[in-house]
Amino acid sequence: MLAEYNPPKVVHPSIRSLRPQSKSWIGSFFQGKPTKKLATQIPPNLPKGLYMYGDVGSGKTMLMDMFYDTLPPNITSKTRIHFHNFMQDVHHQLHVMKMEHGDDLDAILYVAADIAEKGSVLCFDEFQCTDVADAMILRRLLEALMTHGVVLVTTSNRHPDDLYKNGIQRQSFIPCINLLKTRLRVLNLDSHTDYRKIPRPPSGVYHHPLDKAAVSHAEKWFRFLGDPENDPPHKAVQTVWGRDIEVPKASGQAAWFKFDELIGRATGAADYLELMRSYHAFIVTDVPGMSYRERDLARRFITFIDAVYESRAKLVLTSSVPLYQLFMSPDEVHDALDSGRAKGDVALPTDGEDVDDVMRMMMDDLGLNMQMLKSSSIFSGDEERFAFSRALSRLSEMGSREWVEQGLGLEHRGGRGEKEGWERVRSRWREDSL
Length: 434
Hints:
Elements: H1 25-31, E1 49-53, H2 60-69, E2 78-82, H3 83-101, H4 107-118, E3 121-125, H5 132-147, E4 151-156, H6 174-183, E5 184-188, E6 206-207, H7 212-225, E7 234-240, E8 243-251, E9 254-258, H8 259-262, H9 269-278, E10 281-287, H10 295-310, E11 314-319, H11 330-343, H12 355-364, H13 366-375, H14 382-398, H15 401-405, H16 415-433
Parallel strand pairs: 1-4, 1-5, 2-3, 3-4, 6-11, 9-10, 10-11
Antiparallel strand pairs: 7-8, 8-9
Helix pairs in contact: 4-5, 5-6, 9-10, 10-14, 11-13, 12-13, 13-14
């Protein structure tokens, strides 16, 4: 279908056409002739989009990347972007429109035309809705994009029927779900295998506990990933929407933060995305274990982990506890084990098995990971459980030698050609995240 598809020309609405028509005689006199009504029908020749959902590591992103890279030549404009980045940009554009033209403007239609002009095929990664502000605009935004002839392809961790589950005013979001199911083909990619967890040689980028060796570990990786000879370590400042983010130590394309300097402050997704555009390696030291008492810190750290992973950057950590204890303390795991075994969700212990054995297995077994999280009462819902589960999976993959060596131009990985290919991937991510 796409090979024969000729997207329609995007007709950009005028500002006047987006304002409500005055009902009074005097208002209509000053307003002038009524503006031409905008097209609101989805073109009959618009190909069905694609909605791929499944668990962590089931290959969703890989399939979408292959689809994006092999689009037919008649598709001359295309966009691939993480859904979180996309919605952040949409809210920013809506804010700018309202600041310039006032609150009585239907800015969604204008922003949709802007997006449609950039690509007739729009690929989202990690489609989700956890925010009421997103829920209230998504249906009209997606419908407006389709009206302009945009084909949507997206990945998600859940079926459309499970999006925004138990969210505020969810009834208002149902039309968006119906639109997705009607205009996109829904594919289930669930798999019992997390393909990112296939064993690889360890890279040694993670170190615990916080002893003297932890300091030398961080310094070694900072020298290796930075460029201290040509760019001596220095403080730097990045600006996000008028706010300054201080980078305590930078060299080349590597940045070094203490956990409290990065996560302990009032930072968020926009800050992390800006850092990803400026650096391709991050050393984060003094990472604590985060039990339910530090759940806000854990959520913020997971947002940072997601940003590092999506941008294909490298991550070096020194932590007070092993990775598998970052988000659940041994006591919390012990309680979850007891609860899961009482319900029959988690297998009974084998001889000699202790809590640490189970927690190590959580890093390598997505099924056990999710069972444990579902058996724990410390998470507020399925979205949070999935986020924590995905963070463990991504940390495991980013700790592999394959991940760390990509883009370094090592001879056994392809030399200069491999490095240039990785830099093209990073460059494309930067463009998509703008």
